[in-house]
Specification:
Largest sheet of chain B: 7 strands, mixed
Order of helices and strands of chain B: EEEEEEEEEEE
Low-confidence stretches of chain B: none
Largest sheet of chain A: 6 strands, mixed
Mean pLDDT of chain A: 93
Oligomer: heterodimer
Radius of gyration of chain B: 13 Å
Structural class of chain B: mainly beta
Structural class of chain A: mainly beta
Strand content of chain A: over 45%
Number of helices of chain A: 0
Largest interface: A-B, 25 and 29 residues
Helix content of chain A: under 10%
Order of helices and strands of chain A: EEEEEEEEEEE
Low-confidence stretches of chain A: none
Number of strands of chain B: 11
Helix content of chain B: under 10%
Shape of chain B: globular
Distance between the termini of chain B: 36 Å
Strand content of chain B: over 45%
Shape of chain A: globular
């Protein structure tokens, strides 16, 4: 059974720092991996999606990498801002073609001014 | 604007009552999903549907029921058989053909049962 782990569970940094969030999964047979952002009491916003054949994806200050063989993904946030404060979730989709996402428990990020 | 709407945003019910959560999408997506989120836990899949009039149980379907009479709508009923219904419920949708099958989420409904 696929399990997804995110470390750390919480992270507090001063504004301007570059930071890395980690996601690991136990079964490397995945179709894709998505990183989401969730603000308190809100739904999920998709940040980046990496297909299994890809190594990384970039969007603005965000860069996500995928190492399928080792079961790891990282989300790199450059020059963090207070507006980046949120919970970041990663989710993997099994290699079945239909997207039944398996989620990690998230990393709660606080960026202080 | 294309997107997913969920209503209501907050819902309060007495124990023993059934309650229905609404989910509508205008993204022309084929597949729709219901997830449950509890504090400190990841999202867990309740039910999903790939096509109208067809749906499958997810990992925690006990005490829940769904219908898919229209492509745009996928309501979730939380029945009195659900032992611990208080949670944040999220609806999502995606295409079924054409990679990369990205899932899009609604704003959620917070259900409190007392």
């Amino acid at each position: 059974k696929q399990e997804v782990t995110q470390i750390p569970a919480a992270l507090s940094v001063p504004e301007g720092e570059n930071l890395v969030l980690n996601c690991s999964f136990t079964d490397s047979a995945i179709y894709n991996l998505q990183w989401f952002r969730q603000d308190p009491g809100k739904g999920l916003t998709s940040l980046l999606l990496i297909q299994s054949s890809q190594r990384e994806q970039t969007s603005g200050r965000l860069n996500a990498s995928l190492d399928k063989s080792s079961g790891r993904s990282t989300l790199y946030i450059a020059a963090s801002q207070p507006g980046d404060s949120a919970t970041y979730l990663c989710a993997v989709s099994p290699n079945t073609g239909f997207q039944k996402l398996v989620f990690g428990t998230g990393t709660r990020l606080l960026v202080s001014p | 604007d294309g997107g997913i709407t969920q209503s209501p945003k907050y819902l309060f019910r007495k124990e023993g009552q059934n309650v229905t959560l609404s989910c509508e999408q205008n993204l022309n997506h084929d597949a729709m999903y219901w997830y449950r989120q509890d504090p400190g836990q990841g999202l867990r899949l309740i039910y999903y549907s790939q096509i109208v009039n067809d749906f499958q149980k997810g990992d925690i379907a006990e005490g829940y029921s769904v219908s898919r009479e229209k492509k745009e709508s996928f309501p979730l009923t939380v029945t009195s058989a659900q032992k611990n219904p208080t949670a944040f419920y999220l609806c999502a949708s995606s295409f079924m053909t054409g990679a990369p099958y990205e899932q899009y989420f609604g704003p959620g409904t917070r259900l409190t049962v007392t």
